[in-house]
Specification:
homodimer; 105 residues; mainly alpha; Arc Repressor Mutant, subunit A; two-stranded antiparallel sheet; 11% strand; DNA-binding
DNA sequence: ACAAGAAGTCAAAAAAATATGACTACCCAA
DNA sequence: TTGGGTAGTCATATTTTTTTGACTTCTTGT
């Protein structure tokens, strides 16, 4: 039933899912940081001192599932994991900028 | 403290407030209907049969407070209240369309 | 061998967002 | 004066999101 409603809602309004995703806590801030350079988990934790592991892990996972970020494992000496903007993520950038501009009015 | 964090968040990411607003339940759907014609409370209730008074009242109030909708009282025989897109609301339209397009990819 | 850093996961608690049902106030028509 | 329509509000549930704190796994440095 809940799923049904969600589906109806999405059908009636395709932007809803994307909006909900981006509005989730820490997501917009993470997206914004991802514009600058690829992200790493613990670095992100340090850059968002009010956030916690779990929240960041969840945000990254959902942004990845929505295909806005891609996760890359870099097989080098200390073994890194990086999250960077996907093509879809890049396509979102100008829209995001427009939103920021509108928000400042 | 909570307020403080919210402020920090907004400072770090100006789009957040607008995103949170639009992602709130029924808001995107209401915004979408407002593109077509001015909205009236009970008509909206009928158009969104899964929603309830309270939610719609809240959504309209918040969209109005965010200055995306303007509320107009029409002093005529049965006394109507209309919600229509403000200038800011109109400025959001193309951004919203872009979001919808991106969501469909 | 032991500690420390990176990248997490899990269950449970707390906080925030939504929904429910009842109730209000105004105007109009029969 | 009773009933119906419009436009809500209020207090209280219920649901969903977000946070907390503890624990895991893998790799490297000393």
């Amino acid at each position: 039933m809940t799923t049904q409603n969600q589906e109806n809602s999405e059908e009636a309004c395709p932007a809803e899912g994307l909006l909900k995703l981006l509005a989730g806590k820490w997501k917009a801030q993470i997206f914004r940081l991802a514009l600058e350079h690829p992200l790493r988990f613990n670095a992100l934790l340090r850059q968002l001192p009010e956030a916690n592991k779990q929240s960041i892990a969840l945000a990254l996972k959902e942004l990845e599932e929505a295909e806005l970020l891609v996760k890359t494992t870099i097989k080098q000496k200390p073994l890194h994991i990086e999250y960077s903007l996907s093509e879809k993520g890049l396509a979102l950038v100008p829209i995001f900028r427009n939103l920021e501009q509108l928000a400042n009015i």
